[in-house]
Amino acid sequence: MKALLVIDVQNGIVDFGDFKEELALIENVIKDFRENNNPVIFIQHYDNEEESPLKKDSIGSEIHSSLKDYAEYIIEKNTPSSFFNTELSNVLEKLGVNHLFITGFNTEFCCMFTAISAFDRGYKVTFIENATGTVSNDESYDMPGLDIRDFVGTVLNWSNVIEVLDYEEYVEEYKIENSF
Asked: Where are the transmembrane segments (predicted)?
């Protein structure tokens, strides 16, 4: 069974930029999974630091209103990996999931860490590159011209163990031909 992970789509991240395109693509994938009765699991990150935009019980830590109504399952975490010290593995086992699709924020942190952790646990992993977003940019890493999503997608793709697709490729590969 396939499951969709929607990682850290929270006000404290989404409000840092213009993520309309990413949110629309994530919503399209969510709708596809729901239409095919495949689980959609939201991951919600909490920080303990008082000044963090993701501090527990703050407006910033809430799932963004554009996708909040789709949250069937919510798993709380406090590290970049959605698996570390969370209930995610137990939920996936109970649901009989063997293939995870990754969407959400931030591409180079929680999405990438979760994709690698999922592979390490034996899941087939599909990373939908343009259905992830990040608040970081080339200046964050002092690397002029760096396209973070493309870089992460390329590295994961080169691993030959994590499938990396853009939304259009996802539709072609999974929505139309295989129709789950």
From this structure: none
